[in-house]
Amino acid sequence: MPEIKVTPLGAGQDVGRSCILVSIGGKNIMLDCGMHMGYNDDVDDELEIKAYYAGHVLGAAMVHIKVGSESVVYTGDYNMTPDRHLGAAWIDKCRPDILISESTYATTIRDSKRCRERDFLKKVHESIERGGKVLIPVFALGRAQELCILLETFWERMNLKAPIYFSTGLTEKANHYYKLFITWTNQKIRKTFVQRNMFEFKHIKAFDRSYADNPGPMVVFATPGMLHAGQSLQIFKKWAGNEKNMVIMPGYCVQGTIGHKILNGQRKLEMEGRATLDVKLQVEYMSFSAHADAKGIMQLIRMAEPRNMLLVHGEAVKMEFLKGKIEQEFNCYMPANGETATVTTNPSVPVDISLNLLKREMALGGTLPDPKKPRSMHGTLIMKENSLKLVSSEQALKELGLNEHQLRFTCRVQLQDPHCDSDTLHRIYKHLKSVLKGYTIQHLPDGTVIVESIVIKVSSSAEDTNTKVLLLSWSYQVNYISDSLSFEQM
Fold first, then answer.
1. How do the residues of the chain divide into helix, strand and coil, expressed in percent and rounded to 5?
2. Which of 6, 252, 277, 332 is 20 to 30 A from 271, alpha carbon to alpha carbon?
3. What are the Beta-Casp domain coordinates in residue numbering (predicted)?
4. Full domain range(s) for residue 262
5. How many helices (H) and strands (E) does the chain have?
6. Strand, coil or helix: 284
């Protein structure tokens, strides 16, 4: 049987360092990569790649990879909740053989986004009012712009004067990319872009290192987002000793980083050179992460309807919990780095079906085909110009230039009835009319009853005139009526 192999070289039961090797249809494909949303890229005659909008950050994409009849969807990072500058991730019902999904927040169900925004603004405002400084460690692109828009709007509405700063250079770069790819932002940003660039902030200015020592309240966005190095860590060291100050962690922090330590309540930090830093400032965690939570992950799975799931980019214990939930509906794998998950695929053979055959099935009381509920259809499979097509027998004979040969089945049924043969046949006719609603039933002058193509004749037994012999003859196409025929209740 054909199979797909997936080997995480990074992000297998851990967060970050994503690197996924997929072997499909004799080809090896390395993921992560950026793609052009909404376009199919034909890499060669067999390999097809389609990108889907992933939310998360500007330009983030999920990819659907097809080789022949086998397919894989790889999400990378994605967000199923729209925010102030990006829309939600989306994917069509592509039904891949395997969906490889990040699982950073595998056990988290987030509260209302509006409530989180209100709490965030309240905490910042309270700290500013008491003369404190607020540090918000962020990644360069994504949550930084989201929170800047939030504070810019709040400062404008409240007429606040405390300065807001952003790491030098990042604002200019972000503005450039948002202007260039404005069509990838959400509808609100696109509508207001002609009148005003939402990313040209009036209240947020470029940050200089010397500003960290300025007296009075201020808000600073600085990178990186986990306080493990760089400008955010330098500012944190300067402000950590003052209880008036505050640090707000808006996203995920990997174990071992300063961000992870202070979120877990550590108040004495060992820094480089064995120096100890006392943490007296207020520490807050408010998840503005652009990763899907557990509910969002399940939402994407149900949208795509994969045959199998594979989780990466998550902590092993949390992934195991989500895996248990997913396995109530789908097969699920969670290989560690270096392990290979092998998924057996079912080769699919695409077959067209003629419109006339579908109409005939509907006329017989059938329903339209459902991919989830396969069922038999009476027709003839023909191959023409390297493609398969299911058509009615009559159409197949005509297209292939063949003569029709009818195959009919016959059987005899005995029943006791003292009436004459014609009366017995008439009673059978009335009985069939009452039980076979919607079928064409005829009583012909030649002494036969016809139900569709079923022919019924009655004759008396030579040994006993009270014993009637029913001769039934029918074509193979109408076997489905036989289940409805019963003469016991006449």
1. 30, 30, 45
2. 252
3. 144-262
4. 113-285
5. 11, 27
6. strand
CA distances from 388 to 111, 354, 358 (A): 51, 11, 16
DSSP 86: -
Q: Are residues 42 and 147 in the same domain?
A: no
Cβ atoms of 135 and 124 within 8 Å: the answer is no
Looking at the fold, whether 155 and 168 belong to one and the same domain comes out as yes
Which phi and psi (to 5°) does residue 11 adopt?
A: 70, 15
Residues 126 and 260 occupy one common structural domain: yes
The bridge status of strand 246-249 relative to strand 133-137 is parallel
Residue that is last in its domain, among 265, 285, 305: 285
Instruction: Answer for the pair 256, 16: CB distance below 8 angstroms, yes or no.
Output: no
Predicted pLDDT at 273 = 76
**Domain end call among 236, 264, 285:** 285
Count of domains for the chain: 4
CA 245 to chain centroid = 42
Is the omega angle on the peptide bond into residue 224 within 30 degrees of 0, that is, cis? Answer: yes
Q: Which two tokens stand for residue 203?
A: 């209240």
Per-residue pLDDT of 397-439, as tens digits, reads 888 888 877 778 888 888 888 888 889 888 889 888 888 887 8
Structure token digits, residue 142: 């994504």
In this structure, the answer to whether residues 233 and 125 fall within a common structural domain is: yes
pLDDT category of residue 331 using cuts at 50, 70 and 90: very high
Among all residues, which ones are annotated catalytic? Answer: 102
Sign of the dihedral defined by the CA atoms of residues 207, 209, 212, 213, in that order: negative
Strands (DSSP E) found in 150-234: 164-167, 204-207, 218-222
- Comparing CA positions, the residue from 325, 296, 373, 326 lying closest to residue 98 is 326
For residue 320, give the CATH number of its domain.
3.60.15.10
Which amino acid is it at 362? M
What size, in residues, is the chain? 490
In a shared domain, residues 104 and 124: no
Helix, strand, or coil here: 281?
A: coil
The answer on 277 and 175 residing in a single domain is: yes
Q: Is residue 142 located within the same domain as residue 46? A: no
